[in-house]
């Protein structure tokens, strides 16, 4: 059995960083030194006691913008990931259990969606629809659900032929029971690993959309938009654009470390029960 009281150092670092990002996102209005759009200094001031990370291209406190940006980035990424997993896993499990025309129709539709580059698809949709937070969540969640569908269906197809699933079918259990009581608990390990990757992808995807001008719109702050706003300062050696970029990388790495640890832990526990 795995000793659950001991956490590997990389996972512990990931947990600490992820927790700090979450706390900053949750308590942003209370811990940010200044308001979201408040101009408090000159353009691109260096780091000082008054402005720990300096100021941005409009003279706003960069630390405050980073904290509010964490709130926006994590909020949208979490909701988009939740939507993609809810939609993709349920449809994938259903296709594996039902088979037949439903499986064929869904799989071919997903193949068609995945044949189109995701970023180009999102740019086309967002250029037509208003770039609101709800639109971003729906577009990101639906596009990303195709990846979750492929994984969920592949895992569910293998589980669906197991003896305990066949026994449930012989008992007369319905599709909903088989999906949520037989397949889902036994598919958690690969799904947990994929959950971390999908969240990271959502953060990077949102940042890319904001950098291209079709993501979170001003005056709201997110890390990808902050990179865009301050990118011209890189030419003059001003690190204002590199700070949000480093935050994106740190969040991605920390979540990945936690997801890997959870995957190893659940796999070891499952093996110990056997």
What features would you describe in this structure?
The chain is elongated. The chain has eleven helices and no strands. The chain has 274 residues and is an all-alpha fold. The longest helix has 37 residues, at 62-98. The protein has one domain (27-42, 52-269): MetI-like fold. 36% of the residues are buried. The protein has helices at 9-26, 28-31, 62-98, 100-115, 118-128, 133-160, 163-170, 175-186, 188-211, 223-230, 242-273. The termini are close together.
Give the helices and strands as they follow along the chain.
HHHHHHHHHHH
Helix content: over 70%
The span between the termini is 10 Å
Number of domains: 1
Number of strands: 0
Radius of gyration, Cα only, in angstroms?
22 Å
Report the oligomer.
single chain
Give a quick rundown of the structure.
This protein is an all-alpha fold and 274 residues long.
Map the helices and strands.
Blueprint: H1 9-26, H2 28-31, H3 62-98, H4 100-115, H5 118-128, H6 133-160, H7 163-170, H8 175-186, H9 188-211, H10 223-230, H11 242-273
Helix pairs in contact: 1-3, 1-11, 3-4, 3-6, 3-8, 3-9, 4-6, 5-6, 6-9, 9-10, 9-11, 10-11
């Amino acid at each position: 059995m795995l000793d659950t009281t001991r956490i590997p150092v990389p996972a512990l670092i990931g947990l600490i960083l992820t927790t700090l990002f979450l706390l900053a996102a949750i308590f942003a209005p209370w811990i940010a030194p200044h308001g979201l759009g408040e101009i408090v200094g000159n353009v691109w001031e260096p780091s000082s006691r008054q402005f720990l990370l300096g100021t941005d291209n409009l003279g706003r406190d960069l630390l405050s913008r980073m904290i509010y940006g964490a709130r926006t980035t994590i909020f949208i990424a979490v909701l988009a990931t939740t939507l993609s997993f809810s939609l993709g896993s349920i449809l994938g499990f259903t296709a594996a259990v039902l088979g037949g025309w439903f499986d064929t129709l869904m799989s071919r539709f997903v193949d068609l969606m995945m044949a189109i580059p995701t970023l180009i698809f999102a740019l086309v949709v967002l250029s037509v629809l208003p770039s609101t937070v709800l639109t971003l969540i729906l577009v990101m969640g639906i596009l990303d659900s195709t990846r979750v569908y492929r994984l969920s269906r592949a895992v569910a197809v293998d589980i669906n032929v197991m003896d305990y699933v066949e026994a449930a079918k012989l008992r007369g259990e319905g599709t909903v029971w088989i999906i949520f009581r037989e397949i889902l608990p036994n598919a958690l390990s690969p799904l947990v690993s994929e959950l971390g990757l999908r969240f990271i992808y959502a953060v990077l995807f949102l940042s890319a959309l904001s950098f291209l001008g079709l993501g979170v719109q001003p005056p709201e702050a997110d890390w990808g938009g902050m990179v865009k706003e301050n990118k011209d300062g890189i030419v003059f050696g001003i690190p204002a654009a590199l700070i949000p970029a480093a935050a994106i990388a740190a969040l991605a790495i920390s979540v990945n470390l936690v997801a890997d640890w959870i995957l190893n832990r659940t796999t070891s526990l499952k093996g110990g029960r056997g």
